[in-house]
Design goal:
Blueprint (H helix, E strand, L loop, with lengths): L1 H12 L12 E3 L1 H7 L2 E5 L10 H9 L4 H6 L1 E4 L3 H13 L3 E5 L5 H9 L3 E4 L4 H15 L2 E2 L6 H17 L6 E5 L4 H13 L4 E7 L4 H8 L22 H10 L2 E5 L1 H15 L5 H17 L5 E5 L10 H11 L3 E9 L4 H9 L4 E6 L6 E9 L5 H11 L3 E4 L4 H5 L15 E9 L4 H8 L5 E7 L6 E9 L5 H10 L3 E4 L4 H6 L2
Parallel strand pairs: 2-10, 3-4, 3-6, 4-5, 7-8, 7-10, 8-9
Antiparallel strand pairs: 1-2, 11-13, 11-14, 12-13, 15-17, 15-18, 16-17
Length: 506
Amino acid sequence: MEQRRLDYLQRILNARVYDVAIESSLDLAPKLSTRLGNQIWLKREDTQPVHSFKLRGAYNKMVRLTPAELARGVVCASAGNHAQGVALSARKLGCQAAIVMPVTTPALKSDAVRALGGKVILHGDSYSDAYAHALELESRHQYVFVHPFNDPDVIAGQGTVGMEILRQHQHPIHAVFVAIGGGGLISGVAAYIKAVRPEIKVVGVQMTDSDAMIQSVKAGRLVALRDVGLFSDGTAVKLVGDETFRLTQELVDDFVTVDADAVCAAIKDAFEETRSILEPAGAMGIAGMKQYIAQQRLRGEELVAITCGANMNFDRLRFVAERAEAGEEREALFAVTIPEERGSFKRLCETIGQRSVTEFSYRISDQREAHVLVGLSIGSRSEAPDIRRSLARQGFEALDLVDDELSKEHLRYMVGGRSRLGENERIYRFEFPERPGALMRFLSCMHPDWNISLFHYRNQGADYGRILVGIQVPDEDLPAFREFIDTLGYRGIDETANPVYQRFLR
């Protein structure tokens, strides 16, 4: 084991990355440092020529190919950033590059690959689908495959990020926070840091819906996810590599999972600090660091977060801006029940007091009770229970919705959609790749006797879509309906029992 560590240290020290990469800066983040009570440093890999660390590993792999291998051309699979690294390296080395990318890849990334001379092939909905197709092309055309993470030369190239951090910050560091997709970056960074300054903690960060590495480490074996979330496309990996798993299991000290709201808040943090806009994967290190500080109650420590990418589609910023408030825990969202009588609204407003109202939605639907959706500005998440209790003291039942995805994604835009005709209605929330024909595929798979009683879709400017669907299904058809849901191929969540649906839409 020790010999393997020394082997990786030697590989990293001898890595050839600076023909294409820069030594990115390690910048103090004064606003974050003050707010979080620790010295926060950002390792700015988002400032690389392709706005990601990925060109380090790609070039270190490709520069070691023989002239004969370069003449055959290379192929890779990538959600975007590795593709740009391979395309740039191919242009530098004078070889052809075929790049297989999921159809869900942001246009910003696929267009950048084409601009660098790479041949883009869109295939599948995830990295894993693209990877399988790239292997077919490798066999068919005798290309050299450049793996995005599970290759010692690629890992060593990414490890130069860790080498630079220790060279740039020679004082004590408590922890370094690294986003994990397939595990190439954290494997290389951990390999170097643990060989040179093993007292520094290396903390991996994954999305709650794309945590293949964390599940694998917990199980002690490789675990393949059935599906992955699409928000952080740069880390949407169903199965990590055996080599990255081995290194991560051996060298990484701790792990943190973060959700989309936390990442959106971290994107906002980075923008306010640097005036740069990180992509979701690029902001995961900051999001994980913030969560780790809160969990461990850290004060006065030196902490480094790697901002590993900034290839963000502009249209996705709408979603980021909307969800950043929730991620910062600065908005409380409640479903409040009040008597349907004169003076109730005034009494509710008096109970709210001087707090800023961010949302207020109501529609009459019952002679006895009214259900109101209320959004309020708060200083911290801890204030929400106090608000709920103050409402209860005035006789107003309040349901805290801040963690309810149905409310945040759909219901706040469609309060009042109650119908007496919705008999046998089943309500489902779906997430699917935003691609031509996806909606038609959904509709064509459905039994003709099942009526759609509710449909809500809102384009978030992202590369995935979200719909809320009500389908009227007789009880005798439930087995066939459940089979339909299981074989549809889209991620579906049954929201029929959700109290928000029961209160506002049933």
